Amino acid sequence: MRRLLKNPAALAGLLILAAFLAAALLAPFLAPYDPTAQDLAARLTPPGAPGHLLGTDRLGRDILSRLLFGARLSLLVSTTSVLIGLLLGLPLGLVSGYLGGRLDDLLMRLGDIQLSLPFIVLVIAVMAALGPSLLNTVLVLGVTSWVVYARVVRGSVLSLKELEFAMAARALGASTPRILLRHLLPSALPPLIVVATLELARIIVAEAALSFLGLSGVPPEIPSWGQMLADGREVLFFGGWWVATFPGVAISLVVLGINLFGDALAEVLDPRSR
Question: What is the pTM of this model?
Answer without folding.
Answer: 0.86
